[in-house]
Amino acid sequence: MATTTLDVQHAGGAVDHGHGHGDSGHGPTSTGIDSKKLLMWWFLGSDGVLFGALIATFMIYRNRAQDLSVGETVAGLVTTGGPFPNEILDQLFTAVSAGVLLFSSFTMVLAVASIGRGNIKAFRVWTIATAMLGGIFLAGQYFEYTEFFHEGLSLQQNIFGASFFVLTGVHGLHVFAGVLWLLGLSLTSFRGGISKKDHTNVEVAGLYWHFIDIVWIVLFTLVYLLPYRDGAHDPEHVDGAMRLVQAIPFF
Amino acid sequence: MFRSVVLFAILVMVFGAVAPVLAQQDTNPYTHIDPKSPEGRTIQDLYKLIFWMGVVVFIFVQFLIVYTSMRFKRRRTHTSRPAQVHGHRTLEITWTIIPAIILLIIAVPTITTIYNAYAAAEDTEEAMIVDVYGKQWWWEIHYPGMGPVGEDGQPTDLVTANEIRIPEDQKVVFRLYSNNVIHSFWIPELTGKMDVIPGHERRLSITPETSGTYYGECAEFCGVAHAWMRFVVKVQPQAEFDTWVTAMNSGPDTPTAAFAPEGDVSRAPAEFSACLLCHNVTGVSEAAAEGIATDPSSVGAGPNLTLLSCRDTLAAGLLENTPENLALWLLNPGHVKEGNYMHGVTPGIKNQDEANTYPNQVLSGEDVTAIVNYLESLQPAAGCPEDGVARGNMNTGANAGNAPVLATPAAGTPAPTGGGEDVTGAGSSEAGAGTPATEGEPIAPAATPVAINP
Amino acid sequence: MATIAQSQTQARHATTPAASESGLWSWLTTIDHKRIGILYGVTAIVFLFIGGLEAMLIRLQLARPENDLLSLDAYNAIFTMHGTTMIFLAVMPASTAFFNYLVPLQIGARDVAFPRLNALSYWLLLAGALILNLSFFAGSIPNGGWYGYAPLTEILNGQTDQLNTGRNMEFWAVGLQVLGISSLAASFNMIVTIFNLRAPGMTLMRMPIFTWATLITSILMVLAFPAITVALALLQVDRFLGTHFYVPSTYIDGRLTLTGGDPLLWQHLFWIFGHPEVYILILPAFGLVSEIIPVFSRKPLFGYAVMVYALAAIAFLGFGVWVHHMFTTGLGPTPTAIFSATTMLIAIPTGVKIFNWVGTMWGGQIRFSTPMLFAVGLVSQFTIGGISGVMHSSAPVDTQQNDSYFVIAHFHYVLFGGSIFALIGALYFYFPKITGKMLDERLGKIHFWWTFLAFNAAFFPMHFLGLEGMPRRYASYAEGSGWWFWNVVVSIGSFALALSFVLLAYNIAKTLRSRNKVEDDPWDAATIEWSIPSPPPVYNYKEIPTVTNRDQFWADKYGTGHDHEEEDDLEVRIAGVKLGDVGSGDEQPEDQAATRRQADDLGDVEEDTHVHMPNPSFWPLVVAIGVFLLGLGLIFSHPRIEIERLSLPVLSVLGVVTMVFGIVAWSLEPASDPEPHHDEFNDGHGAAAAPTAAHH
Ligand code: HEA
Ligand code: HEA
Ligand code: CUA
Ligand SMILES: [Cu+2]
Q1: Could you check whether the bond before residue B137 is cis, i.e. omega within 30 degrees of 0?
Q2: C79, C479, C552, C564: which to substitute to probe chain B, counting the most B Cβ within 10 Å?
Q3: Mean pLDDT value of segment B103-128
């Protein structure tokens, strides 16, 4: 049998199978790591840079709207105005939804473990549970967004809104894609298309899911926990803010 | 093959020889090889250091390649394979360390120069401040607090456009602003460039040493007419500079202002009121502009026209400042300088294509004549202030190849020829000033617009 | 065993005829890495000519002062498209062509890890390229420069509320976004292929150096492209949805309002991508040259390990120098000084490469065939570009050079004298491998010397223009500016340079038409891709080779001679996972015997055509068409263009539907065999495969 394996590695192994059955990883690869898994690792590395760039953007702008409001109070200029983060972010609410997402990582681990044991039923349960927890998180985000819109914070309202919605929105899209993926997996399992040998496929989905969880922990810290400046009410920052404002010529 | 290698070697020599020679003598208006300020010289000295290091590396590497190529060519006598050498640790360490040393020699003065340049621009104690606003595609220049006293009793800014005058031997700190797109403020002969970035204040310090005219340009791509966003810097003795400031502040008052209402140049003709929507002229009666120039946000949308006829160029270095060219500009600005926002004054003309197709429909030929004659008369009674031009006015060359000048046959004046050779010091402004070529007869608009840029 | 033999026979019937077909359909559905490589290569050449044609327009316009050949706006569009085309549609695809064609051959694999993903990468490249170039027909050509500095890309005039609603930059942004996805997909594939599909015995430190260059370039792409993805996404959010990420103040409801956006954010994001990007353009070239020079010097690459480390060091440092494109933005003394220093550092590993190449030639028996001429040409000409790069790296000096023709000279020396020289050399070198025919050597030598002279005539005087203060991106210049003379020289040189490409095209056409086959190993090459027939069969290796040496094919031909003084042991571990075997030049005898035995067994099992290759697939093309339609939909539905609003749903929805359809069909498609019971073979573990049939 060893010989066939080798062949698969170099010919069949080159095949990216459709979902459901087999994958490039059936033969031993040069590294011993399954090819799909390796692909996912590098994808996550790349995705990490994507979030890095978005997070950097957010960090640059997180206090900008408040800083500008100084211009309004001190120099009577027109600025985009509030709502500002301190007035609008609900740490408690988001902490709960972050908890939900964190917990889904745990159920994901259980799903991967059950498929490893060949327990399809348990796999189904845990996968759907994970997807549902993801769904709850998304629902929370939807609620949060509508609440913010209600209070006047839109994408266009000010630069805080813009960077907040883009950053958390991109993360939300990732969660959404993950939920679809998990639902797809459980759907296939209902059709009998999943067996112990699909362990790797599930593991790869798991990697992705843990990654978006970790990203959320970072976002939660930077967006919700880290204190914001208070803008016009915050005398310490008037100087710097005024420099910002004055750099813009008005004619 | 051998011949090729020799050819190669010769090329190497030519490069090695030509480059430094060229790098030493240059009289071009935009050269930075021979800087005229200490700031520029520091940069040039640093450049020379790196340049010579580079020449050494260059010659060494090229020599090594040519030598190796010639010495180790395969010959018929080669029967066995050469020694299969896989590397040589000491050698490899050597050619890691030597470049590192060369780079260190470059890095140290580089870093000190960086810190010094930033510090100089921040230190405004002894310096005169000039604010520069990058516009699409021209420059607005402000001398803070040097303008006429305003309504609130405070001195206002002295404002001009596309022509910067600064006193000799005086440190000047330019503060650079933009409210549109990014530009870059560059006077190669004086010092390096600095970008003009919306939302940021940027500074550049220059201490010009020699009176004369220097040429500036926009170095950051800023849209359609980026190539025609030039300016002139006139370095003058302090006294001449002061005279100019006085002249600018008192505004135009030439006695020969026949074309202004009641011969008073401080009162603009009615035709000019449309211009005052965007342009300003210091000292011109508000009455003329009554009810028009009220939107403060539009002030500064166009260049300040105070003492316009004393400037060298029109349209930020595109045209020589002559009455004919001014008329041409007014008849169809979008045609003369593609993309510029003044074509918008023509109602019904929405875009560049249309602007190119129709001549200006707001102003009739007579209107244009009136405005040209009025603008030409905007001078101090004592004539234009000294501008200390000691060198050729290269901008006259700008229109040599540009059809519009030739396209006003009615003006009856020969098209100016290339001015690159105009090194006599005769400022074009003098040539055109005071004596409107068209005395009386209106400058007819060109029958059909001649497309410069079809 | 019986089942295996059976399924292999089936596989042959099912796939071999299709794979060797040559109709249009076979190209549209191919997932063979060699064919995809050829597709990449042909595309690259086509766009090299288009980009070159644009360059000729630039040179015509600048050949005399105040030329009115092109309007200002047309000129701006032409240089934008020239830069974008050359970088994203010529040099990058050309490199990827070699990645695709060579890497599986060099590592002894039968294809890449994900062949259909590979096809998708190519079709996405074509989609992006078409989107960009369709702008010519739509009459709104991108005109913001190849690095599209905001806010020019979103406001036209800050003094009024004129927004840049033209579709020009829309074509650019959407096109680049699609090209980015294509590059990312291709890089993931290459990385996994190189890590996972190496032949037995091929440790990381035994990989051909070009494979190393591919690996490192791919990693660069994976880590650099997300930055521009974000930059472009924010730009589009600004343009489509009215945010102000890059605009500090603008008119909102008729009032000038402070918004707080920052144009410098674009520059940072762009150059965090953009600088690694220039190394993405040069590292494959370095890899190719490192293949060519040893072969023509008959000596192994000097300091292989150091060459690998240098590649890695350049890539690593490349992420820490982006601010050198922003020296004139006034970021303050400390960042400027730091980035000056880091930029200078890159000269060190690059210098090591230059000297090691010379070290390779030193003591060799050098044959100056055309590939070697171009390779040595790179060593010589790239150095010139590198030295001008070091001049830029000194920030104060750069304030006089930035955005002037000095920079244009710098990067054409590194891009043309570097990348293009290497790519042309590699074309001559691998042409026999790819087509079985040899390009005319005599013409080739004329071609080289012509290119060499014309190239220097075209680009060296740009240094002088830079010193004379001529800014780049100037559509026109005054006669009195003193720039005329050198511009004429540059233009003449450029046209001579264009002719050199005509010569190349003639050589290729002539060779392709001739019937002179060349032997499989015409250059006496060192690596295993030359040990198989030229052109290689679909399955590449009848028998997967076992690798015991770096220059395996030389070792096979001439013996090893046990002179690997400098073989380095390298164990690469990432997160505790061993990625490379502890590799050393000479394997333990037992290991060797074991691997060889394995290979021999394999040879027993396989008869010539019994190699099982994956099936062609149509779905990558379908997905790419979907992306293409979606892209056009986005472009033509800019919300601020009222008239076009109607077309939004139609094109975009059509695109999304096509895309989703393609993806679903793709994932349901059996990858290797139309027959349901093929899985036994594919499963490889020999596990009972009965249940798998059920889900078809
Ligand atoms: C193939 C692409 C490529 C490569 C390899 C490089 C390599 C380098 N580049 Fe270049 N660069 C570009 C493509 C490339 N560049 C492009 C496209 C732009 C313009 C983008 C735009 O604005 O449109 C640009 C612009 C650019 C700038 C910005 C200029 C400006 O706009 O103001 C700078 C500044 O530091 C720079 C520096 C360097 C340096 C230091 C290297 C180094 O890596 C070079 C190192 C090599 C050597 C030095 C030669 C060999 C070494 C030796 C022989 C050892 C001994 C040498 C010494 C001690 C000096 N480059
Ligand atoms: C790999 C990249 C690459 C390559 C190979 C080239 C190749 C050339 N470039 Fe390129 N160039 C860039 C990348 C490149 N360029 C970039 C990134 C910019 C910056 C853009 C920006 O500012 O945004 C730039 C900008 C740029 C400018 C500055 C424009 C400006 O700032 O105003 C100029 C000016 O001369 C120029 C000239 C040339 C010339 C003459 C060639 C020649 O080498 C071209 C040689 C010719 C051909 C390859 C085609 C030959 C064939 C024919 C013409 C035959 C006829 C056709 C058929 C038979 C169908 N380039
Ligand atoms: Cu302003 Cu270019
Ligand atoms: Cu760079």
Answers
A1: yes
A2: C479
A3: 93
C11 vs C373, higher pLDDT: C373
CA angle B419, B421, B425 (to 5 degrees): 85
Segment C441-454, tens digit of pLDDT: 999 999 999 999 99
- Which of A153-157, B118-122, C52-56, C522-526 ranks highest by mean pLDDT? C52-56
Tell whether the model's pLDDT for residue B418 goes beyond 70: no
Which contacts (CB < 8 Å, 24+ apart) does range B340-349 have? B340/B136, B340/B137, B340/B224, B340/B225, B340/B315, B341/B136, B341/B301, B341/C157, B341/C159, B341/C160, B342/B278, B342/B302, B345/B274, B345/B277, B345/B278
Tokens of C247: 């605009």
- Between the CA of residue C691 and those of A8, A22, C213, C688, what are the distances in Å? 20, 12, 43, 8
> Quick one: which H or E segment has residue C524?
none
Q: How far is the C-alpha of C389 from the C-alpha of A59, rounded, in Å?
A: 32
pLDDT for position C250: 84
**ipTM score assigned to the predicted complex:** 0.88
Ligand 2 centroid to Cα of residue B121, in Å, is 38
Q: What is the pLDDT of residue B159?
A: 87
Distance of alpha carbon C132 from alpha carbon C176, whole angstroms: 8
Interface of B with A (CB under 8 A): 133, 177-179, 198-201, 296-297, 299-301
**Whole-angstrom Cα distance, residue C40 to residue C46?**
10
Q: Is C660 on the interface with A (CB under 8 A)?
A: no
Q: pLDDT above 70 covers what percent of chain A? A: 88
Classified as helix, coil or strand, C252 is strand
The ligand placed nearest to the CA atom of residue C45 is 2
Per-residue confidence (pLDDT) for residue C19, from 0 to 100: 43
CA–CA dist A134, A130 (Å, integer): 6
Q: How do residues B292-330 score in pLDDT, each as one tens digit?
A: 444 444 456 788 888 888 888 888 888 888 888 888 888
Tell me the mean pLDDT in the region C143-153. 91
Q: Could you tell me the two tokens for A96?
A: 């709960």
**What are the φ and ψ backbone dihedral angles of B320, each rounded to 5 degrees?**
-65, 145
Put simply, the answer to whether C684 touches A54 (Cβ < 8 Å) is no
Cα angle for residues B69, B72, B77 (degrees, 5° grid): 135
Whole-angstrom distance, CA of residue C140 vs CA of residue C350: 40
The Cα C564–Cα C585 span in angstroms is: 7
Higher confidence at residue B22 or residue B41? B41
User: Hey, what amino acid is at B211?
Assistant: S
Rounded Cα gap, residues C640 and C245, in angstroms: 18
Residue A177 pLDDT greater than 50, yes or no: yes
Query: Closest Cα of chain B to C117: distance in Å?
Result: 38
Residue of C239, C222, C240, C228 lying closest to C265 (CA atoms): C228
Q: How far is CA C194 from CA B103, B138, C199, in A?
A: 35, 54, 10
Element (H, E) at C192: helix C168-196
Instruction: Using the CB atoms, write b or e for C464-500: b if 16+ within 10 Å.
Output: bbbbbbbbbbbbbbbbbbbbbebbebbbbbbbbbbeb
Backbone phi, then psi, for B411, in 5-degree steps?
Answer: -65, -25
Distance CA(C279)–CA(C216), nearest Å, equals 10
% residues pLDDT > 70 (chain C): 83
Distance CA C8, CA C681 (A): 8
Per-residue CA distances from C129 to B274, B394, C43, C197 (Å): 47, 43, 9, 30
Q: Which residue has the tokens 């922990």?
A: A217
Considering only CB atoms, which chain A residues are within 8 Å of C581? 30
Report, as an integer, the average pLDDT of C146-167.
Answer: 79
